[in-house]
Amino acid sequence: MKDYIEERAVAIANYIIESNATVRQTAKKFGISKSTVHKDVTERLPLINPALAAQARIVLDVNKSERHIRGGLATREKYLLHNGRH
């Protein structure tokens, strides 16, 4: 594996853990696709640093379990703003 990919995978994991970031937020921050973030954390990072991979995975699993709540709140906010109420 190329050094820059390993460095990116570690940087991504650290960002996710420190920021409690979602895959989408992480992809935007690093200028890469969501699938690349996912592949880095779930496939590449366990080979490089299993402990860090496990920590990042915990954050991503929590975010995944809460995403329906965030989506509902975003939709609610959108319609409140659209209808002139806030």
Question: What would your notes on this structure say?
Answer:
The chain has helices at 3-19, 23-30, 34-48, 50-82. The mean pLDDT is 88. The protein has one domain. The protein is elongated and about 50 Å long. It has 86 residues and is mostly helical.
Taking the sheet with the most strands, its summary is:
none
Name the average pLDDT. 88
In total, the number of domains comes to 1
- Give the DSSP E fraction (strand runs of 2 or more residues): under 5%
Tell me the total number of β-strands: 0
Please work out how many helical segments DSSP would assign. 4
Structural class: mainly alpha
Features:
86 residues, single chain, mainly alpha, elongated, 0% strand, 4 helices
What's the layout of helices and strands?
Blueprint: H1 3-19, H2 23-30, H3 34-48, H4 50-82
Helix pairs in contact: 1-3, 1-4, 2-3, 3-4
Short description:
The protein has 86 residues and is an all-alpha fold. 85% of the residues lie in helices and 0% in strands. The mean pLDDT is 88.
